[in-house]
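Take a specimen:
=====
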Amino acid sequence: MKTKGLQTTLFSTIGVAAMFVALVAFNGIASKVKTRVDLTSERAYTLSEGTKRILAKLDTPVLVRFYCTRGDSRMPVFLKNHAQNVEDLLGEFRQRSKGLIEIQKLDPEPDSDAEDSAKLDGVEPRMTEVGEPFYLGLSVTLLDQKETVPFLDPQAGRLLEYEISRAISRVMTSEKPTLGLMTSLPMSGQANPMMMMRGRQGAPPWFFYSELKRTFNVLDIPTTADSIPENVKVLVVVHPKGLSDSAQYALDQFVLRGGKLIAFLDPLAALDAQAAGPMGMGGGPSSSSIDKLLKAWGLAFDTTKVVADMNYVARLQQGRMPAVLQLNEQAVNKDDVLTAGSDNLFLAFAGAFTGTPAEGLQQTVLVKSSTNSQLVEAMMAQMGGEQIVKDFSPSGLQQTLALRLTGKFKTAFPDGKPKASEEPKPGEPKPADKPADAAGLKESSTDGAVLLVGDTDFLQDQLCVDVAMNPFGGQRMVIPRNSNISFAQGAIEQMAGDNNLIAVRSRAARDRPFTVVAQMQAQAESNFRTKIKELEAGLADSQRKLNELQRSKTGEGGQKFILSPEQQKEIAAFRKKEAEAKVELKQVRKKLRGDIDSLENKVKWFNIAAMPALVVAAGILLAVQRKARRAAR
């Protein structure tokens, strides 16, 4: 017995020692080989394919300086968590780049070398609620090229991967991109002879146009152009009203040769001052389209109808305007980096894109209406919103307001470039356009990209910025009032950058909302609104009956102000109906709370009991197996 006990002790000691050695060896090997498995459904911790392709192009070391305040008293807790997410993501970038990305982590303490370095790199401090400065930004350097992200906003955490990828992409090229701009609107400013006679300047350039000039070499291209210069890689078309077939052919060939096109179209350009003429008179608002190209791409854009949406109604001084849309984050594609941060878009009389993309093209919807929307006549929409509200009938469809097409495009002019029609002689009919030749491109050789937006008014200063004069310097101050400018700028910057930036998706949200609870609340709110409508309808009907009874008493002298038996009966019936409706509304609320509480209790019990139950089940299974082995002996 003593020998058996000694053997048991010896074997146990050897087993523990062997397990210790195995664990140390495993940790040592694991520390050298870093492998992560992303088990989240939305691949929240995996780099996008676009980012991987950008990193694959690196052949020169890139230095990333990550400035983050580490002091416990200066860094709020939520920013610490965000900083840790940034570090984790930078680690993914470094691992994917095979060591070509070097990460330097710096803590800019007051009056330190790290703080001086942050200021030189353009990373400025932010202030906490108690007035303490903190840093959370980074700079990317490749040779003599440097790109800075001054502040990594935790509110824009979904764009974190895109921000870093864009910075790396920008330092990989040194040339400033040339941007073509084709428009029928006075975006660069407009001279007004009447104002100049009074010693005043004409209309200044649009804020959107001024911002483009700061970032790109902007080349103005007339709407009558029959070709696009070769040095233009990105072309922005804004309200191309009355665009000829020759000009559309130029756009067609531009896309087929690999150029990127961004087109802002409009079924009703309410702020088109040129349409009204110099004295404020003329044909009124105008429309625009690129119908030939859209048809070849499998899409359509109705220039006679605008989108009205009762869920996104803008409340103006004139009242409710269902065709003027105040869009929130529910209306944008949160999985796309372009719209992930756009939570406040303001569109006026926007049009909708319909149809199915042609073969070889993939469509990404960026901005859409709710299902509580419909298409209304453009002419009726500009006359006021009350009639639209009165006759509103939801289509049940989400109208596409902005989209991106990617893939291989085919020409809209298979017969070649259209020949300009010659002016007919007096009394002769105008000849039709004829193709000149068939030498043009028929299909793009590489994947291209086109971005389409169904509104142009949202780019004008009246709808997207507030302009004021600085009381100290007397300079013109421009303050964005919504996400319009950032959305348009982001679209152009994305197109003008590396092609792979388009494939970089937004990071998935870290929080996991209870979608079932949200659906239950939405259903209950729908029932609640239905009951309210029934109550309002009953009230209106009772009020109408009371008014009719009162009008029938106008000739009864002093009896006018005394309630008749019919009126008293009607009022009693209405009060009964109102009380019943209130009871039903309470039942709806009570049932909603009960269903949600029941679901939350089930989730809590599952979370509390699931792991202990698994441990108990594993223990029972192990005990049964051990007992079976002993019985076999």
Summary: DSSP finds 16 helices and 26 strands in the chain. The chain has three domains: 49-171, 178-192+203-418+439-496, 519-604. The two ends are 19 Å apart (CA to CA). The longest strand covers residues 319-327.
